[in-house]
Amino acid sequence: MINMKNIALTLLGCFTILAACSNSDDAEKPVAPVPTGDVTIYTTTNSLTRDLDRDAVNFSSKDNLAPTSITLNPTEQYQTMDGFGAAITGATCFNLLQMKPADRHAFLTETFSDNSGFGFSYIRISIGCSDFSLSEYTCCDTKGIENFALQSEEKNYILPVLKEILSINPSIKIMAAPWTCPLWMKVKSLTDLTPLTSWTNGQLNPAYYQDYATYFVKWVQAFKAEGIDIYAVTPQNEPLNRGNSASLYMSWEEQRDFVKTALGPQFAAAGLSTKIYAYDHNYDYSNIESEKNYPGKMYEDGEASQYLAGAAYHNYGGDREELLNI
């Protein structure tokens, strides 16, 4: 059986925020009164006959049972739910910043506010570009880790939006992952260490493990300097996907070695509290037999496991029962 530890569901495809850019002056629809009750329910149907409609229900007291009563057994506990959230991408932030400031703030408030919105508690962002960025880039495209710097997409779009969200909900947790390492760190394969100057595919040259770990440290510190704490990272988004517009193949052995020899020790040496989650891909492990139970195999290595908070899974590609039955 797999050592479950903590599992983070990283739903980039499902949870990417789509921001409407229209500044239409059309007459606004009348706002229905917000129903009141012990619990607020938001409902959206696949036909959109109901679109984030709000309802409310009251739950009875112990002495006045009703059909909507829920009886809890405080002695029976399961894994805690850390939160729910959305992905904030370069394209998302670009679109958000085309909106009127008041409209954008209202949208972000409804999404992230604990008091007057949905109360999303997580945000996922990319380290460098993603497949929803305005361009393909990393934060160190010129060879040499001394050339690390945040780029215009972070400075002009992502950071301003994140700061506005944090002003609405300061307790938001931010999880980050790279889609690719800098191209100068890439090789065609570990058996063919020929450099690969392609955003798509390739593998991380082990000779650059330390530089790449430094890249992570510098990135987390750069966001911290902007007042933004990074709660967790994964070493690679979809490590078994060779075909994404920006991608890097990283087997479980590679990720294990990178974490235990470079990323984990460098986070510890820098005094970073940022958590590291393994894997960050689908339930079916892209049907690669040798990669089944990817994070479980990493947990079996004591040196790597000490740096891991758990595993991240994308909620598609297979069945979570496959995960539970390993």
Supply database-style keywords.
7-stranded parallel β-sheet; two-stranded antiparallel sheet; alpha/beta; 326 residues
Characterization of the model:
The chain is α/β, with parallel strands linked by helices. It contains 9 helices and 11 strands. The chain has a 7-stranded parallel sheet with strand order 1-11-10-9-6-5-4. Strand 5 (122-127), helix 4 and strand 6 form a beta-alpha-beta unit. Helix 2 (90-96) packs across helix 4 (152-168) and helix 5 crosses helix 6 (252-269). The longest helix is centred in the last third of the chain and has 18 residues, at 252-269.
Order of helices and strands: EHEEEHHEHEEEHEHEHHEH
Rg over CA atoms = 22 Å
Q: Poorly predicted ranges (pLDDT <50, ≥5 residues)?
A: 1-27
Measured distance between first and last alpha carbons: 5 Å
Please tell me the overall pLDDT.
Answer: 88
Number of helical runs?
A: 9
Count of DSSP E strands? 11
Describe the largest sheet.
7 strands, parallel
Please give the order of strands in the largest beta sheet.
1-11-10-9-6-5-4
Kindly estimate the percentage of residues that lie in beta strands according to DSSP: 5-15%
How is the quaternary structure best described? single chain
